[in-house]
Amino acid sequence: MSNTIKNILVIRLSSIGDILLASPLLRLLRQRFPDAHIDFVIKSRYVDAIRTNPHLDTVYPLETSAGHSALQEMRRQLRMHHYELVVDIHNNFRSHYLRKIPDAHVVVVNKYKWRRFLLVCFGWNLYKQIVPVYQRYINTVAHLGVEDDEEGLEFCIDTERQSAIRTKLDEMGFQFDKKTVAIAPGASFYTKRWPLDYFIAVAKALQSALDIQCILLGDKQDAELTRGLAEALNESTYDVAGQLSLMESACALNCADVLLTNDTGLMHLATALGKPTVSIFGSTVKELGFFPVGNNVMVIENVGLSCRPCTHIGRKSCPRKHFKCMKEIEPQRVFDALASLLKT
After folding, report:
1. Coil, helix or strand for 319?
2. Range of the domain at 259
3. Which of 184, 283, 304, 341 counts the most CB atoms within 10 A of its CB?
């Protein structure tokens, strides 16, 4: 079968990080099946994360706000293409519905749900080895001769948007020949956010000791955080959080030397761009599969804390009320990590 596959469908509906983690799989599928038609289904609001991927033929945006009728219409469209291979790397109720394509060979990602449950809820670590999420995606098609090339994540910049963002930054006074640290202080959940005061302390120290400039990144929900950060820093700070699309954020990030971030989609975007990255992890751990992939990547975490992980995605508050997983990560550790990357 593997030598005759001509139509392939990959399903991953969300979110930014998970979609970027699919980029090695798409590259490897293209290498293994160079003449195949490879399509991708994704929620419409995340299309920027995949639309410039050179290994895809068609991207199908799913407008989930339209309800079940949109899901039905999407499945009708997909069934018209007679896919021989369907790779479901989401494995939720929507992807389960969409992957029901007659005569297709369907493979589904292993999320290690029981091991994850036992680790999070009881602290029982039954992971025999740590398998990163991107590798779990590749493993779905390993039986078809697809092997990891260890080239990591990838993301293709839209050159027109890059030019527009460089113009925008230039008008703000950004100096393209000056060392730059991009900072993303936000995260979708409270327990994934290092305290803002700590970000401020590190950024102030960097500007004072190393004379760097800062680009502040994030979505509209992060804008309040970046506003407070910008107000505490000097004039060599450029706050564009909440103003840019994902592609534009990638273009701005491409102008930086290093990214300082929590566990976010921007973290995976930076590694896909090959940017040195310092990532701060609080309530989640490496076994869950989402640590950043690549060279010049440093993870800062509170390793000795017995209550980690308390979740696999993040929480709205610390269940033990002390938030030691983040509060005990001192700014000096993060400063030292960034300083070492800036010197390389």
Report:
1. coil
2. 159-342
3. 184
